[in-house]
Amino acid sequence: MTIGSQVKQSLANLKSIHATLQSLALKSVDEQAQRTFHEAMLTTEEVIDHLKQRVSQLEREEPQYKGK
Amino acid sequence: MPAWLEVAIRSVCILIGLFIITKFLGKKQLSKLSFFEYIVGITIGDIAGTMSMDGNIRLAEGITSILIWSLFPIAISFISLKSKKFRDFVEGNSTVFIKNGKVLEENLKKEKYTIDELLEQLRKKDVFRLADVEFATLEANGDLSILLKRDKQPLTVGDVVGNVPSEKEPQTVVMDGAILDEPLATAGLNRGWLKNELDKIGVAIENVFLAQVDAYGQLTVDLYDDKIQVPEPQEKKLLLAAMKKTQADFELFALQTNHEEAKQAYEMNAKKMESLITKLEPLLKA
């Protein structure tokens, strides 16, 4: 497995974390919990953005592994 | 009219009347019965019993008596609500027995409490050493309330973990296979969601004896068919695990890459994930 695909896997994981956090933020009854989940969601968005950049960078470096 | 019929009619009427009166007296009377309220209760019962059996007593007289006996406590509790002074007079005050860890002998004497009785009350509350008590007071209803010294108090969650998420009550959304719409709405959910969740764990609604939703929207069910194993909700555990894995991945990437800029970015993201994990862990483990 190339580093490119590993990073992509992490990106997918992060997206799933993001979605779960979002659904928890919606489903929680307690406001404090809602806010915490929401903030966490925003943080993961930042991380996702960075990771996306990194993925395109890697794809430029190793065009043969350009993702499906 | 035959005598038995009269007794029957009287009894039924009085039963209904008494039922209404007890509803008016409220729940408080059940839990915190003072001596006065106890006597009032017995007397009302006695009057009602005599009234239903004894044909010589006229119904109007009996009803007057019952009304006075039952309205008086209601009036007293109503005035008690309004006036603090009246309340203190009627319901009595609490007496402090132990303050700053020292027994107040004067107050013991005032309440005619011997030290043996005080020790007995303390033992009933699992306190065997007087030295462990910071503060104790005899409540108006005769109970002893105890505040233990700080280092003798039982450990609470707040002592161990900081920033504990507040606990919200779970809602019961299915009872005896029937969906309860009101609690479902209180939890901010609907029937479609419930059906979806039940499908996820592969259970038919007819088979659900009881289902509850916790404050994080997780569904737990009890089935009629106890042979079926129901999976526990995994969402939060999986989320925590996924976050830990991603954090570890970032650290790995940071080690593997030779690209200086990427290395720093990975390290920063690993830190971000780590702080996220510490922030969410109390919520996700709850």
TrEMBL record, chain A:
Keywords, comma-separated and alphabetical: Coiled coil
InterPro entries: DUF1657
Coiled-coil regions listed in the entry: 41-68
Highest taxon above the source species: Bacteria
Pfam families tied to this protein: DUF1657
Record's protein name: Uncharacterized protein DUF1657
UniProtKB/TrEMBL annotation, chain B:
Pfam families given in the database record: DUF1657, DUF421
Membrane topology, as annotated: Multi-pass membrane protein
TM region positions: 7-26, 63-81
Compartment annotation: Cell membrane
Segments forming domain YetF C-terminal: 82-214
Signal peptide span: none
GO cellular component: plasma membrane
Keyword terms of this UniProt record: Cell membrane, Membrane, Transmembrane, Transmembrane helix
Entry-linked InterPro entries: DUF1657, DUF421, UPF0702_alpha/beta_dom_sf
Family of the protein in this entry: Belongs to the UPF0702 family.
PANTHER family recorded: UPF0702 TRANSMEMBRANE PROTEIN YCAP, UPF0702 TRANSMEMBRANE PROTEIN YDFS
Protein's name according to its UniProt entry: Uncharacterized membrane protein YcaP (DUF421 family)
Native species: Thermolongibacillus altinsuensis
